[in-house]
Amino acid sequence: MSNYQDSSIYNSPNTIGKITLLLIAINVGLFAIQVLSGVNITDPTTLDALRWGADYAPLTFLEEPYRLFSSMFFHFGILHLLMNMWALYIFGDVAEKTFGKFYFLGLYLLAGLMGSLLSGYLDIRNSYEFLQHFDQKLIPHVSAGASGAVMGLGGALTLLSLFPPTPNQRFVLDKRSLLTVLAINLAFGFLASGINNAAHIGGMLMGAVMALAWYVMQRMKAPIAVNMIIVILGIAVTYATYLYCQHLVGPITPLWQEAVSQMRAQLQF
């Protein structure tokens, strides 16, 4: 990615966007607090993850929906944190300066939420299948991390790279590089174990849709206030997706209640 209006923008040590910096600070600060409270810096336990807001679909959809949000700010060790924060620094700075602070923050959070929701949806479908035949691979897992939101930024920038820049767009986006990075991340998610690729895909799709809406409005020279309407529509779509997942949970509620009870008994949570 290269700047075509002011190539000196990266020469200043204080050029990182304020919202990007704030998000990094929140993630790093929370991680530091967790470590100081006794969480293992390289390999947190499942109990620690749940105590700090990680997502576990049965618990999330039956009792504590806030985990769809809080799970975006917990990481499974310092390596997980550093990888996501590096990606947030690279993607976030460009995305914030492209979309503006308000739209950037809305896109980031909605992408993270949609990543959590798609992950939960797959856990719901897997639980339906589990009722038909026992398979440990179908049991819901605890998940967390900012990768869904970060992939949303990557998906947004990649989508923009496919179209000619708008007159006010500050960056020319390298389509080949962005597509390569997304492809590698998705392939790694499918091939490696322990990676919640559903969250990556959900975040990426939401980011791409939000970027497309923004791009169309830019081309139409719509007033900035329209961006707020797009974010509100994004919130509505996200909430509707949550309600749909809640509707699907009904038939598997006894199974998930038992799963939550067993986890609480096992972990004394």
From TrEMBL:
UniProt-listed InterPro entries: Peptidase_S54_rhomboid_dom, Rhomboid-like_sf, Rhomboid_protease_S54
Protein origin, superkingdom: Bacteria
Keywords of this entry: Hydrolase, Membrane, Transmembrane, Transmembrane helix
Domain named Peptidase S54 rhomboid: residues: 63-212
One GO term describing the cellular component: membrane
Localization in the cell: Membrane
Record SUPFAM superfamilies: Rhomboid-like (SSF144091)
GO molecular function: serine-type endopeptidase activity
Protein's name according to its UniProt entry: Peptidase S54 rhomboid domain-containing protein
Naturally occurring in which organism (per UniProt): Acinetobacter bereziniae LMG 1003 = CIP 70.12
